Structures are given as structure tokens and as C-alpha cells.
């Protein structure tokens, strides 16, 4: 069953079309990744799905409820970690969770237990009674994820959950997030512009300037760029290239003293190459395509360089600055 | 229609933060003290009293009104802070109606203001006033209704502003004039005609007047209340209902 369905969604802000005829569906229990550069329309799509904005055109459903018309049913079914922190920094971690539990009518009998479990789950039990303004960026993020799960939502939205975190915290947070579908039977909808992070997704849609330009599993998307690339250093590149062309009937070229060729199944191709021209080969390395290559191929620009308006960039910079420096 | 869980938790949050923030508590209590003793004390040398009421006693209901005005507006303007720092989103995506959120915020303003009024009210023996228990209960009840009306008015203001820079605009151009034109410092009946009209449009005027009616019920002449208690109560009760409904509507706008 599809947990999230989006059909021909359009959202205009005055003359700007932030979301431009977007359609997709997400299966129950899946991790869905929504990828795109700054200003692509990711947050706007989330805001429509979580009932904060009305679409200009098109439909969005969560758990088969209409996001625009049946807001309160949708709101009961979702948990959200917003791009910008939405914690009350003058309350403690436990008080933030308590507020949430009351707001979502968590049963009195279960309230305390769920909050303790959530705190333990994100490893914040020791800091439960500290004010949130004393937390690091990573701790706040973890607390927000815990809060989003307190009322056992069917869908959890994560809008750039790792933005502004250091690499180690990012890895930790991802390990944690990937356990959620099994542990909590929750469907995850996440956005990011770190391509590597999207590899954990079951399905990905790439959005650019409001339009979905590609979608599929990570493996399917990588096929777009044509498989793995094998690089060889040899004692005689000219001869090696000639042999490869003759023996394997493959396209091969030379760059920076290395010869390289692309193959759908690089790992299976390497032993065959070595068997035939092994005595010439000094070293071998193979590169798997990343989702970044996919984006590069589709738009002609790397995702981290390409950008929306200048204002979007500045906003994104301010955001990650704030988060890093733990401002409140 | 109104979800009590939402109202309860919104009030609990504001109250907890209020208690925790010592500086806010001190400044809200320091302001009435300064006005009452420094301005009231000084002016009473200059301004002749009424029949049984000295000037410092005359402004006491106005000082209570001021306490309510500042604390309830401040409490509902905190919506702007919540928007600015993102917490409002946590509330807006929760399965509670916008109207419950507004009622919760207005109730927070009411609870905090009434709490502060009760503290300021303790000053009455020091300025030679005598109040019986019924009068004290009356003051507290009127304060609560007035606070609810003003907090709803504050929410209405806050729903038009997105950032906290607007806070000083609201304070200087709305809150201060409201205070001075409420009959808190001088009887409305002594004002020039134009200001008299403006005062009659000011919700706070009726709140302060109701308090005057309760605090010195037997006073007649220029220091007495300007309207009857019945009119005062009708106006503030009506306004609290009207403001909370309009604020609810203003809050429901979705882009
Ligand atoms: N409330 C708004 N009013 C006007 N324009 C808006 C509004 N919200 C978003 N936009 C515009 O819509 C476009 C998409 O913005 P959105 O926030 O959805 O991008 P995003 O993909 O989340 O980007 P980022 O990676 O920077 O978070 C941008 O051009 C943005 O300026
Ligand atoms: Mg965004």
C-alpha cells in the first residue's frame, strides 16, 4: 500500500513556482529520499504534505487522507523534524517531550514510559533535565527525532536532518535513522543534499527547480551514468589499450597516465582483464558511480555547486552556521 | 471544538517559563512599584484628591490595569518569538485546532496576568486603601476577564507580524498610548473632547473603570469612575469573546 501519494503537485509563491507538477508515491515502511540543491522545492513539498501550506494545484495524500482537506487526520499520522530547529530552548529535553505528548494526547498511562524510552533511544537520558539551549547541534537533532516519534506516527519527515553536523555525528544519526522503519514500523520521507546519505534510501527522487528529474532505487539511478569505471596503470598504455580493444571490444581511453574503461559489472570485469593482460598491469582501481555523478549527468552541474537564488544560499549558510554554533 | 489538552499544555509551558525567568518576574513587578510610588507619590503633592480618594489611591486601579496590559500583551506577543525560533511549527502541525491554540495563548496571558495582579494587589494597605474580601475577589475576577480580552487582542496583533523587530513598534505605538488613554493616570471625564472619544474606544478604559468601580464604589465627583460597572463588564466580556474569535480567524489563515 502507498503511504504517501503526491499527484501533479504545484505550489506557486507569487511569480515563483517552487514545486512544479510533482508526482510520486512512497510505499509503507520504505525510506524515501528527496534530493535536490538549495531552493529546489523540497521543504515546500514537505510543508504541503504536513498541512502547513495548501497546494496551488494537485493532490497530496498521507495514509489515504487528503493533506489539504483532512488536515487533522493527516497531522495525527505524521511526525516531523523540520529543517530549522523547532524545539523550545528554554525548556528541558524532558519538558519538550512532555509538551509533545500532551499535545498529541498520548495516554496518561504511557506518557512517562514513552518519554523515558525515547530519551534512552537517542542516548539523552543523562541530559534529560538540562535546558535545550545547552545542547550541541547533534543532541538537538537527536532530541527532535525522538520527539517526532513519541506519538508513534505512521510517517516521519526528516528535512535535512544532518545539515551542519560533523561527519561523525552524521554517521551516527544515519545509523540511528535507518533502524527506525523496523523498530517503529514507520515510513520515512527525508531530504538531503548530501548525495552519499541518500544511498540508505529504498527509493529516491531527484528534484531540481521544482521538477522531478529522475527517480528510482539508488542502483537504478546509478545505471543512468553507465556503471563502474575501472582505472589501470600499465607498463605500456598504448599496447594495453590496443589489447583491450581487440580482446574485449570495449571503449577505453587514457587520462593522466592511467587508462580507464567503464563496465556495468566492474567487479566481474577486473579478473577477466587481469587474466588476459595481467603481465602489463601495475595497479588497478575501480570507482563506483555515486549519486553525485547521477546529478552531474542529469543537470550538468554537481549538486553542491549548483544553487537556487542567492538568497536561498545565504539562508542555507545562516542555517548551518546557526546549527553549528549552537545559537539560540 | 476547544481541545483542553492543548490549552492545558500551552498554559503550563508559559507558566513554567515565566517562573523560571526571574528577570521577567522582577521587571513586571518593579514597573507598578515605580509608577505607584515615584509618579503617584510625587504627583499626589501636586494633584488634589477627591472626596475620600487621594491621587495615589486614585491611580491604584490604573496601576493594576497597567500590570494586566503589559503582562497579557507581552505574553501573547511571545507568539512572534515562537514563530521566529521555530517552536510555533511544532504547535501548528499537531492535531489540534488553531482556535484551541489561540484560546491556550489567551488563557496563558490570563493566568500570568492574574498571578501578577494578585501580587501587586498586596500593596493596597501601604497606600491607605481598605478593601473587603468581596472587593478583592471582584478585582481578581475583573482582572482575569480583562487579561483574557487584552491577550486575545495581543494575539491578533501578533498574527500580523512575523519578526520580533515589530515588538518595539507595538509597544511604542499601541501599548503605551493605550495605557495613557485609559483613564489610569487621570479621569476620562477631565480629558479634552477628542481624547475622550479615543479613550472610549480603548478596551483598557473599561477594564480600569471596572476596577475603579470596585475599589472605590462610594466615591462621587471628579475622581470617581466614569461609567457604570454594568457597562464596564458588558464591554470587557463582549470584547474578550470578540477578540478571541477574530484572533482565531486571523490565526487560521493558510498560504
Ligand atoms: N513562503 C515563501 N514565500 C515565497 N517564496 C518561497 C517561500 N517558501 C519558499 N519559497 C521559494 O520557493 C523555492 C523553493 O524553496 P524550498 O524551501 O522548498 O527549497 P528547498 O529545496 O527546501 O531548499 P534548501 O535545500 O535550501 O532547503 C525557493 O525559490 C524559495 O525562495
Ligand atoms: Mg529546505
Provide keyphrases for this structure:
heterodimer; A: 328 residues; alpha/beta; Rossmann fold; Alpha-Beta Plaits; six-stranded mixed sheet; 11 helices; 14 strands; B: 255 residues; mainly alpha; binds adenosine-5'-triphosphate; binds magnesium ion
Count of folded domains of chain A: 2
Structural class of chain A: alpha/beta
Count all strands of chain B and give the number: 0
What fold name stands as the CATH topology of the largest domain in chain A? Rossmann fold
Provide structural commentary:
The complex is a heterodimer of chains A (328) and B (255). Chain A is of the alpha/beta class and 328 residues long. Chain A has helices at residues 42-49, 71-77, 93-103, 108-121, 137-149, 167-184, 218-223, 237-248, 266-277, 291-299, 310-324; strands at residues 2-13, 16-27, 31-35, 57-62, 65-66, 78-81, 155-159, 187-192, 203-208, 211-216, 228-234, 253-255, 258-263, 281-287. The longest helix of chain A has 18 residues, at 167-184. In chain A, a hairpin with a 2-residue loop joins β1 (2-13) and β2 (16-27). Chain A has 2 domains: 2-217, P-loop containing nucleotide triphosphate hydrolases (Rossmann fold); 227-288, ACT domain (Alpha-Beta Plaits, 2-Layer Sandwich). Chain A is 38% helix and 27% strand. In chain A, the strands form 3 sheets. A 6-stranded mixed sheet of chain A has the order 6-7-8-3-9-10, sandwiched between helices. Chain A has a 4-stranded antiparallel sheet with strand order 2-1-4-5, with helices on one face. The model of chain A has no long low-confidence stretch (mean pLDDT 86). With 255 residues, chain B is mainly α. Chain B contains 11 helices and no strands. Chain B has helices at residues 4-20, 22-43, 55-58, 60-84, 87-92, 98-121, 133-158, 166-180, 193-201, 203-215, 229-252. The longest helix of chain B has 26 residues, at 133-158. Chain B is globular, with a radius of gyration of 18 Å. The two termini of chain B are 23 Å apart. The chains are: A alpha/beta (328), B mainly alpha (255). Chains A and B meet through α2 and α3 of A and α1 and α5 of B. The complex binds adenosine-5'-triphosphate (ATP) and magnesium ion (MG).
Amino acid at each position: 500500500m502507498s503511504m504517501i501519494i503526491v499527484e501533479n503537485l504545484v505550489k506557486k509563491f507569487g511569480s515563483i513556482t517552487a514545486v512544479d507538477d510533482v508526482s510520486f508515491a512512497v510505499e509503507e515502511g520504505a525510506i524515501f529520499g528527496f534530493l535536490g540543491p538549495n531552493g529546489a522545492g523540497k521543504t515546500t513539498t514537505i510543508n504541503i504534505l504536513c498541512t502547513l501550506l495548501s497546494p496551488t494545484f494537485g493532490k497530496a495524500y498521507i495514509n489515504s487522507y487528503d493533506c489539504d482537506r483532512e488536515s487533522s487526520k493527516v497531522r495525527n499520522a505524521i511526525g516531523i523534524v523540520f529543517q530549522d530547529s523547532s524545539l523550545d530552548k528554554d525548556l528541558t529535553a524532558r519538558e519538550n517531550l512532555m509538551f509533545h505528548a500532551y499535545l498529541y494526547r498520548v495516554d496518561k498511562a504511557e506518557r512517562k514510559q514513552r518519554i523515558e524510552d525515547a530519551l534512552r533511544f537517542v542516548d539523552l537520558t543523562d541530559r534529560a533535565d538540562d535546558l535545550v539551549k545547552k545542547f550541541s547541534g547533534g543532541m538537538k537533532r537527536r532530541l527532535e527525532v525522538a520527539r517526532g516519534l513519541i506519538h508513534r506516527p505512521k510517517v516521519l519527515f526528516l528535512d535535512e536532518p544532518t545539515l551542519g553536523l560533523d561527519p561523525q555525528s552524521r554517521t551516527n544519526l544515519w545509523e540511528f535513522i535507518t533502524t527506525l522503519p523496523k523498530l517503529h514500523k514507520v515510513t520515512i520521507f527525508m531530504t538531503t543534499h548530501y548525495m552519499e546519505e541518500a544511498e540508505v534510501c529504498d527509493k529516491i527522487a531527484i528534484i531540481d527547480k521544482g521538477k522531478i528529474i529522475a527517480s528510482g532505487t539508488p542502483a537504478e539511478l546509478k545505471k543512468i551514468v553507465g556503471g563502474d569505471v575501472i582505472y589501470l596503470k600499465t607498463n605500456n598504455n598504448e599496447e594495453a589499450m590496443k589489447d583491450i580493444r581487440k580482446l574485449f571490444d570495449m571503449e577505453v581511453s587514457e587520462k593522466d597516465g592511467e587508462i580507464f574503461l567503464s563496465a556495468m559489472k566492474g567487479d566481474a570485469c577486473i579478473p577477466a582483464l587481469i587474466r588476459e593482460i595481467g603481465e602489463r598491469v601495475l595497479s588497478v582501481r575501480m570507482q563506483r558511480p555515486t549519486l553525485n555523478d547521477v546529478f552531474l549527468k542529469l543537470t550538468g552541474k554537481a549538486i553542491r555547486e549548483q544553487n537556487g537564488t542567492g538568497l536561498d544560499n545565504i539562508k542555507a549558510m545562516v542555517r548551518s552556521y546557526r546549527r553549528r554554533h549552537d545559537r539560540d | 471544538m476547544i481541545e483542553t489538552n492543548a490549552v492545558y499544555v500551552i498554559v503550563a509551558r508559559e507558566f513554567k517559563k515565566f517562573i523560571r525567568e526571574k528577570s521577567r518576574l522582577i521587571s513586571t513587578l518593579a514597573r507598578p512599584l515605580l509608577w505607584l510610588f515615584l509618579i503617584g507619590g510625587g504627583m499626589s503633592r501636586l494633584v488634589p484628591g477627591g472626596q475620600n480618594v487621594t491621587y495615589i489611591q486614585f491611580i491604584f486601579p490604573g496601576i493594576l490595569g497597567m500590570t494586566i496590559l503589559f503582562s497579557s500583551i507581552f505574553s501573547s506577543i511571545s507568539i512572534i518569538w515562537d514563530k521566529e525560533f521555530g517552536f510555533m511549527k511544532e504547535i501548528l502541525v499537531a492535531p489540534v485546532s488553531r482556535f484551541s491554540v489561540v484560546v491556550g495563548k489567551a488563557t496563558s496571558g490570563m493566568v500570568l496576568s492574574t498571578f501578577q495582579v494578585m501580587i501587586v494587589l498586596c500593596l493596597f494597605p501601604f497606600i491607605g486603601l481598605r478593601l473587603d474580601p468581596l472587593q478583592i475577589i471582584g478585582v481578581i475576577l475583573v482582572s482575569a476577564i480583562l487579561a483574557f480580552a487584552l491577550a486575545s487582542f495581543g494575539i491578533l496583533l501578533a498574527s500580523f507580524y512575523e519578526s520580533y523587530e515589530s515588538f518595539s513598534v507595538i509597544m511604542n505605538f499601541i501599548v503605551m498610548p493605550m495605557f495613557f488613554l485609559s483613564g489610569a493616570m487621570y479621569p476620562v471625564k477631565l480629558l479634552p473632547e477628542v481624547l475622550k472619544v479615543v479613550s472610549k474606544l480603548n478596551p483598557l478604559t473599561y477594564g480600569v473603570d471596572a476596577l475603579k468601580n470596585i475599589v472605590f464604589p462610594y466615591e462621587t465627583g471628579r475622581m470617581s469612575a466614569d461609567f457604570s460597572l454594568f457597562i464596564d463588564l458588558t464591554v470587557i466580556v463582549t470584547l474578550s469573546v470578540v477578540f478571541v474569535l477574530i484572533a482565531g480567524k486571523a490565526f487560521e489563515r493558510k498560504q
